[in-house]
Amino acid sequence: MTETPTRRDLLNQIGAIAGGSAVYLAMTSMGFAAESDYAGPVKLEGDPKGASVLILGAGVAGMAAALELRKAGYKVQVLDYNSRAGGRTWTIRGGDTYTELGGETQHCRFAEGLYINPGPWRIPYHHKGMLDYCKRLGVALEPFIQVNHNAYLHSKNAYDGKPQRYREVQADYHGTVAELLAKAVNADKLDDAVSKDDRERLLLSLRSFGALGVDGRYRTGEYASSRRGYAKPPGGGLSAEPESSVISSSSDVLKSGLWRALAVALDYDYQTTLFQPVGGMDMIARAFAREVGDLIRLNSKVTAIRQDETGVTASWCHTVTGEMGQSRADYCLCTIPLSILSQIEMNVGPKLADAIGAVPYAPGMKIGLQFKRRFWEQDEAIYGGISYTDLPISTIGYPATDYFKDGPGVLLGAYPFGPYAYEFTAMTPAERIAKAVEFGAVIHPQYRSEFEHGVAVGWHRVPWSMGCYGQWSSEARAKHYRNLCAMDGRILLAGEHASYIPAWQEGALLSSLDAIGRLHQRVMAR
Amino acid sequence: MRWLFVLLLWSAPALADDDGVFGSPFRFTETSGASIYTHVCAGCHMPDGRGAVGAAAYPSLADDARLAAVGYPIGVVLRGQRAMPPFGRTLSDSQVADVVDYIRTHFGNNYAPPPTETEIRTAR
């Protein structure tokens, strides 16, 4: 897969047109749908006899390795460029400052308790490794709301640019598809494909799938309203009688393109249940740092990695004091993103060197916006979940915590990939925020009166990652992936880029556990 | 699958503003070298073309002798190089020609002639 369109867009398109099995095939060929192979806590048995490991990068991959290797008896040290542990497992709160490449510094002014996760923000139920570490490290989790039937789907070219509720689009789309298919069956168009018995079963299933009448029609009325919602919902007493909402014509439904967004929830990655750490994604980073923080040397920019017959030496420069130094160990587990590692002098073989240079980094951009009140809940009954739009902001994510709270709230005001993410990133933070407010106001006019301030992270301007995640093409994966993961002398790599679950913490974690397992085998075989 | 996608892609309407920014989620719609540089390249190479340094660096394009041979920037823009993502599928031939010409004639560079669309097509 190439860098554009985003995989989510592509999957949406494929899914909507070719059906779920096509999506699954496409996903597996892109390397996204592989089941997490986490098999419980890693067991590194045997005495490593004082062997030492230098870990580069204190993100999820680096800290999990530090935790497990120390527990197994290794001498461990960790270097990280950043001034905090966690890497992309990151949360921005009021009082935090963030300086991006180019020198712009943002001072986040979010109110107490409010935050934005610029990187990962959700953990699917099947990311077993992450969930297990959260449990073992005491990280409290709460449900992340992925699908909210009362959130919006919006296209500037559909329904006069008026946002539609998810439930309306879903009901009308299912109704349209079911009705058309029922018509084809009834016109004997599918006789070659469907047996006589199955024909009746199919018609029955279409009625239930699409909320069709006994005549196979999807029409305005009680049944359709029980799916898409009511013009006047049922109540009690004298004014109880519901009024049906009016369905869209099949032509409007198809023309709208809003069905694209429905496929997101079909994606294995986004199926319920998903979780988030209570208080922000960096609760995971903090929990790891509680365990292994004493091993981590922060503010250390790695400038060279040299291996010889007896060990590996990383040269570093302190990012604040300019102090230069070296750290040495028998082995090195390097979790530095390839965008950065590809520029660090390093004596590895040509296969690994080529692999390191073969993976460009995807763009990504997130904006957190603080509003005076949680108008999405108070005015629109949207409690968590996501609205999708074809405006450049792509996504509005509503906080899945602190429901009904008075006072200000923060939502995710933009989360594009692809060209829109590049275009946002090329702006100043203030311009990005102003644009996100302008676009978001199309969906929520309350933005205009309720917006207070925001913070914007364009991942290509993040100094310690220089891109969002490793964007493997299928060609590059076929040619380089195994070489990237293979041990080269005394060096091996880990991180989301060394996984088939790119961009997810689970990929970083599993790659790390796999790497230290192989490293341990090697040490035990000495 | 690929063809299906391409059809959809072409049917995506461009509603870009005057500078061509934010016209499509799938491809860039900026219409001049200056606009492409400002709204895409500057994200990393910065508005002044001097790049930036963090844990690693985005190279400066200023006074860059490597831009003398036009094939080099064309190849890097189309196919990417290490951390630099490929833009071959998100920029048209004329856009690549325009932006390559832009960086070869700005930031202290002064290389002529501008690349032709044919050169870009051949390099793909």
Provide a descriptive summary of the structure in words.
The complex is a heterodimer of chains A (about 525) and B (about 120). With about 525 residues, chain A is of the alpha/beta class. In chain A, the strands form eight sheets. Chain A has a five-stranded parallel β-sheet with strand order 14-2-1-18-25, covered by helices on one side. A four-stranded mixed β-sheet of chain A has the order 10-9-21-22. In chain A, strands 17-16-15-19 form a four-stranded mixed β-sheet, with no helix packed on it. In chain A, strand 21 and strand 22 (about 395-400) form a beta hairpin. In chain A, about 55% of the residues are buried. Chain B is mainly alpha-helical and about 120 residues long. In chain B, helix 4 (about 95-105) crosses helix 5. Helix content of chain B is about 40%, strand content about 5%. The chains are: A alpha/beta (about 525), B mainly alpha (about 120). Chains A and B meet through helix 1, helix 11 and helix 14 of A and helix 1, helix 2, strand 1 and strand 2 of B.
How do you describe this structure in short?
With 526 residues, chain A is α/β, with parallel strands linked by helices. In chain A, 35% of the residues lie in helices and 19% in strands.
Q: What fraction of residues of chain A sit in β-strands?
A: 15-25%
Shape of chain B: globular
The number of distinct β-strands of chain A equals: 25
CATH class of chain B: Mainly Alpha
Which fold name is given in CATH as the topology of the largest domain in chain A? FAD/NAD(P)-binding domain
User: pLDDT under 50 segments of chain B (min length 5)?
Assistant: 1-15
CATH evolutionary superfamily of the largest domain in chain A: FAD/NAD(P)-binding domain
CATH superfamily of chain B: Cytochrome c-like domain
Corresponding CATH architecture of chain B: Orthogonal Bundle
Write down the oligomeric state: heterodimer
Class by helix and strand content of chain B?
A: mainly alpha
Number of helices of chain B: 5
Given helix and strand content, the structural type of chain A is alpha/beta
Number of strands of chain B: 2
Q: What would the average pLDDT of chain A be, to the nearest integer?
A: 94
Strand content of chain B: under 5%
